[in-house]
Amino acid sequence: MAFSIKILTLYKDLNFSTDSNIETDKNERLEIYKNGVSKHNMSPALDEYLKDGIEYGFALPKDSTAKADYAIKAGKYFFVQGDLKKDNINEAAEALWLESIWQEQTLDMDTVYVRYINEDNHEAFQIFRKVAAN
Q1: Sign of torsion over alpha carbons 85, 51, 127, 58
Q2: Which neighbouring-strand residues pair with 34?
Q3: CB 50 within 8 A of CB 110
Q4: CATH number at residue 23
């Protein structure tokens, strides 16, 4: 599948919590992966783009005053989304990486954010890779 890679500016943090005692949106969750691909690796395996995923909880409502355990911080990101059932998430992560190289953008080399959104019994994924400050 051809993925549509975007450059996205988040103007506010996307906040998440693992605390089951506070109100969270169970339809939106965050996992953080390590990137295992260096810019000098010309033929990485697909599973290298998303390594060692860790769950970081569910979304806090926008008006929540609860303390977030983790956030996707406001900033500039390369972004791609897909259908979790139809699309290969590793191929999406690869497409995002290749587009960043094509556009000569440097990304945060370690962190890959994956936001899962469930709406009307349909689950989508969104991959965020922070554009590094030059």
Answers
A1: positive
A2: 51, 111
A3: no
A4: 3.20.80.10
| pLDDT tens sequence across 24-48 | 999 999 999 999 998 777 788 999 9
Q: What is the pTM of this model?
A: 0.93
1: in domain = no
| Cα(81)–Cα(65) distance, integer angstroms | 28
For the chain, what is the domain count? 1
From the CB of residue 40, how many other CB atoms can be counted at a distance below 10 Å? 5
SS3 content of the chain, % helix, strand, coil (to 5): 15, 45, 45
> Measuring CA to CA, which residue among 128, 118, 33 is closest to residue 72?
128
Distance CA 9, CA 25 (A): 22
